[in-house]
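Note to self: the last two entries modelled the partners one at a time, which told us nothing about the interface. This time every component goes in together.
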Amino acid sequence: MNKAKNELHDLQKQIELWAKGYGLDFFETIFELIDAKHLNEIAAYGGFPTRYPHWRFGMIYDSLSKGYEYGLQKIYELVINNDPCYAYLMNSNTLVDQKIVIAHVYGHCDFFKNNQFFKHTHRKMIDEMANHASRIRQYGELYGIDEVENFIDLCLSLENLIDVHTPSRKGHDILEFLIQKAPLEEWQRETLIMLRDEAYYFLPQGQTKIMNEGWASFWHSKILTEKALQDIDIVDFADHHSATLATQPGQINPYKLGIEIYRDIEERWNTGRFGKEYEECDDIEFKRHWDKKLGKGLEKIFQVRKLYNDVTFIDEFLTSELCEKLKLFVYAYNKRNGTYEIVDRDTRKVKDKLLFSLTNFGQPMISVTEDNFEGKGVLLLTHAHYGVDLKLLEAKETLERVQKIWKQTVCLTTEKNTAKNPSKKRKHSRSL
Amino acid sequence: MIHKIERDYYRFKDIIKGRIKQNLKKYITKGELIGAQGKNLISIPLPQVDIPKFRYGQEQMGGVGQGEGKVGTVLGKGGQEAQEGTSQAGNMPGEHALEVEVSLEELANMMAEELDLPRIQPKGHGVVSTSANRYSTIRTSGTESLRHFKRTYKEALKRQIAHGEYNPDDPNVVPIKRDKRYRFWKPTPRPEYNAAIIYIMDVSGSMGDEQKEIVRIESFWIDTWLRSQYDNITCRYIIHDAQAKEVDQNTFYHTRESGGTLISSAYKMAKTLIDTEYPSEDWNIYLFHFSDGDNWSGEDTKLCIDLLKYHLFPRANLFCYGQVESRYGSGQFIKDLREAFPQEEKIVTSKIDDKDAIYKSIKEFLGKGR
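The predicted structure of the combined assembly is written out below.
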């Protein structure tokens, strides 16, 4: 056991040096080797060793441990955005697995530290989460466990109603609005403040899933193939790596899409295949051999990982050529057959669809329009509609739950926006 | 190490079972985990509580995918909206699982988990046998049907790369004899224990179809559980009114007699069975008796109590008496038993008022792990 631990420690030190040698820049990273049960627990807690008591963590744990037990899924590693970074490795990983995941972790740690959307995240979140846990436990003792948990259940219906913009736009941070204006008990207000803090802590991870996983995969692949692998490891590495990047027809694998875009950027900035001159060149043969020997590939991707999020990353760097190479397509539901079918391979459409599903971290855009609608204390929420409806029944249930917090009538209105002409708006009201 | 998550886990389970927080009941969805085992897709039930939020409907949303296919190529069936949320990987729209038959052993484990049943500690020595064959190791020799494809392929690939015979443009990987890897099981010796279950049921006129249905369901679950705990199980069935007779399983559940009731007749028959066929040194013996609690006379009840005390308890692991509610029965027998054996560990009595009470009753019977 100790021998294995020492071996792993040496390996980690070595990989850390290589990572730094490539220019990766991260907080001190502490690795812990834990068993499957413990890893599933931490994963259920969103990566943290301690969270406040709540049944939904148990629900996620149930799903993770069943998946593991039946051999359907396995978590190799978990890493937390914190200073120092904490990384948890599964103790049953083979040595090759450990090499891959340690290198992968350093990629994530670099991303956490340097991507601008993480700039304002709490870097002592492990402590903060533990504080939240102990305060909510205390509320449970004072006001009753069921009472406190029921209130948290209500808040969870709203946890996606936060604003991705900084500084935030008026009315878009609905959690903040309720903290300020809703008639809440003091402990409820404090609880909502904590849940909002946690939602904002997790937000940048939701906004950079493709970039972050792509970045970590890019670096594990580079560090392993250039430095860490021994001959005997190659086949096992290829096996693990290709499983991580495997795609299925009906979904996007963020690891795969991310790494491909970074590699494409690296290649384009190494050869100078960008900018006006390149775009406007119509000699296909000439373009094929285009190489200005710029060698700025690595520099460029380091800059990209600092300044972009998934939306801007896809928008700017998913080229038509890459779209075709990756065989991306749009699928839609066919009502007549009750099936999902491929409907388009046009690059523009693929990008539009992809961007739509990433905008506002994939959540509908809902904001507070009035808090004293018609002078009756009615809370009016507006859904900015860009072509896709809300699930209506669920929206109704959600409204009922917002009403329990607002304690007066809550209405939702739909503001229809046509992408081509955003100024032309039609209104559909729906109230409870 | 005690895991903190267990508190959340049990609370979640309690919600799913409807024990707490009934207000969440309407949000319970019938989720499932889908996976491939070999060539088959398997579905593992995974109920979830889905807190409502403002979200997009998936059918109208559609999405972006990656891979081969022309416009019009079908990716999967719609129907149940795929779960969004926690897992970013996301479900493929309309991914469908084949229902798999759950084996009885899995069923037993599921029930045991539901009821928190303890594993039974069998008595007796147990004959050591070699069972529990699991393909747990890999060897370099074996029969072709047990060849491990992936391990063999990897070995062949490694060898070809090492010898410079691998051509990425024409990746032909042909295993030779020394590449081949085979699944192999380690026989895990474990002691084998035997159990005999003797089911006794009152089939006198007062036991109606509803009562028998309860007995049938309850004994099915008991049977399933005990079978998962023992290697060898033998079941015997005794019915009685004023007279006892041994019958087969089918008759046991479907016979209805009109006569009076002498419970002692059945206990005597059980005693004879044990004496002649199931010496208690070699057998774990379970007796389950179901009745509506009517006996012919106090005299016969006294005889029953003596039979239990001197003949059945000393030989059995457990004697369980389940009394089903009947319009006609007096329900006296359970009171008599409880009065006669206030301290006796071998007996468990349980009142089963209706079908809903079956769960509780099974737990009472088997909850002690004997």
